[in-house]
């Protein structure tokens, strides 16, 4: 069974360790685990925590037992994340196929991903949410960034039209502009600049 939730990706795979540690070693029910995730990882609400719980399970970092959810022994690695994405997250096989067929001149974007997979969006989502296209376009954006995080996708830059083009330069410029701010603010500014420079994605080295 493939899961639908795709939370906001972290800056690095190693950051998943903190989310994994928030899930108890002694099995806990969904409510208990969501409370722990919210408190220990500063998540905004229960729905976000519940999405993370499902996603961590898909990545093999959390196990569900008859008594509840428990932290798995596995550690977060790019290989494990790639396996979980490929095997247990909705629309990943379709996305990888589109990435393989993409080029720097015609990359996969959240909009094109939605256009190519809209018929695969669960019917109940389309019927109960009038704004389902926006929700699934945002999901497509997060999914592409997850794939990029583990080299299943490669970003195409705005200026040069090739993977990673302009991203480093734009990120560095934004970081310089934030030099008087603290390190966290500078890093956030650099990340925002890098994201703004990306026009789409092609297949990554790990596909």
Task: Describe the fold and architecture.
Helices cover 54% and strands 9% of the residues. The protein is built from ten helices and four strands, in the order H-H-H-E-E-H-H-H-H-H-E-H-H-E. Strands 1-2 form a two-stranded antiparallel sheet. Strands 3-4 form a two-stranded antiparallel ribbon. The mean pLDDT is 89.
**N/C terminus separation:** 22 Å
Tell me what portion of residues adopts beta-strand conformation. Answer: 5-15%
Helix run count: 10
Largest sheet at a glance?
A: 2 strands, antiparallel
In short:
The chain has 207 residues and is mainly alpha-helical.
Question: How do the helices and strands line up, and which of them pair or pack?
Answer:
Elements: H1 16-22, H2 30-41, H3 46-58, E1 62-65, E2 68-71, H4 78-88, H5 92-101, H6 110-117, H7 123-128, H8 132-149, E3 153-157, H9 167-177, H10 183-197, E4 198-203
Antiparallel strand pairs: 1-2, 3-4
Helix pairs in contact: 2-3, 6-8, 9-10
């Amino acid at each position: 069974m493939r899961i639908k939730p795709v939370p906001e990706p972290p800056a690095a795979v190693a950051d998943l360790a903190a989310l994994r540690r928030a899930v108890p070693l002694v099995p806990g029910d969904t409510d208990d685990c969501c409370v722990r995730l919210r408190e220990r990882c500063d998540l905004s609400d229960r729905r976000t925590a519940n999405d993370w719980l499902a996603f961590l399970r898909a990545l093999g970092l959390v196990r569900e037992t008859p008594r509840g959810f428990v932290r798995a022994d596995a550690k977060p690695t790019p290989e494990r994340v790639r396996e979980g994405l490929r095997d247990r997250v909705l629309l990943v096989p379709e996305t990888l196929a589109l990435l393989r067929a993409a080029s720097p001149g015609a990359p996969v974007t959240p909009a094109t991903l939605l256009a190519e997979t809209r018929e695969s969006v669960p019917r109940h989502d389309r019927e109960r949410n009038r704004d389902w296209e926006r929700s699934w376009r945002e999901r497509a954006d997060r999914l592409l960034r997850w794939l990029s995080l583990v080299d299943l996708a490669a970003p195409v830059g705005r200026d040069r039209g090739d993977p990673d083009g302009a991203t480093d330069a734009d990120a560095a410029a934004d970081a310089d502009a934030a030099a008087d701010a603290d390190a966290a603010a500078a890093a956030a500014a650099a990340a925002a600049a890098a994201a703004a420079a990306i026009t789409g994605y092609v297949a990554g080295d790990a596909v």
